[in-house]
Amino acid sequence: MTVLDTPLDQPLSIAMRDGSRAEHEAAEGSSFVGELMAGRVDEAGYAAYLRRLRAVYAALETAGRDRADDPYVAAVHDPALERLDALDADLDHWAPGASHDLAPGESPAATAYVERLQDASAWGGLHVAHHYTRYLGDLSGGQAIGRTLDREFELGGRGTDFYRFAAVPKPKLYKDAYRARLDALTSDRDDKARVVAEVQVAFQLNRALFAELGEQLPAWRRTPREA
After folding, report:
1. Are 221 and 128 a contacting pair, CB within 8 Å?
2. Residue-by-residue pLDDT tens, the chain, 227 positions
3. Residue 184: helix, strand or coil by DSSP?
4. Which CATH architecture best describes the domain 12-98+106-219?
């Protein structure tokens, strides 16, 4: 579905969901995600993923703080969601002693993602498109990744801080309230169209990041733990 095909007279959160369904499914269907969920990505591969996420969240969270007075950003901005400290803690577990930063040229996909996040900070609606894509994803499918890692590596909760939201004991209630705040914003059809288009871009950027990781899967292959 293109933005032009998305009914823009419906609430903003529904337009965002329905207008990005194809891009969302394409990102979730990547080979890297499939192998990660099957327990076939080793510690080095997962740490490479975390470093990319760290670059993305550093840019996203900086932009959110800088634009917190924008009506769109104010509707969803919540320091309790921020993931940077959790990513640092997890990287200490998965790659102890190693730099948390990406090496120059290590990830063109993450660099493109960060640049888009910086550009999107020009208008709160664009920032919200990325905020929605990342954090609601973390509170949804991201939880399954956390459980898979915990089981496959027998972590006992170690190294999975990224997936734990101590201030969000009931994710469904939080997500419902988040969507309600989006829907309460005054958004005309043109604004909705811009937001929906940016959600599509956000999922495309995630797909590109997964595709980049997928190219290195042979080097990160592990045998899943037997049930």
Report:
1. no
2. 555 466 678 999 999 999 999 999 999 899 999 999 999 999 999 999 999 999 999 999 999 999 999 999 999 999 999 999 999 999 999 999 999 999 999 999 999 999 999 999 999 999 999 999 999 999 998 899 999 999 999 999 999 999 999 999 999 999 999 999 999 997 789 999 999 999 999 999 999 999 999 999 999 999 987 75
3. helix
4. Up-down Bundle (1.20)
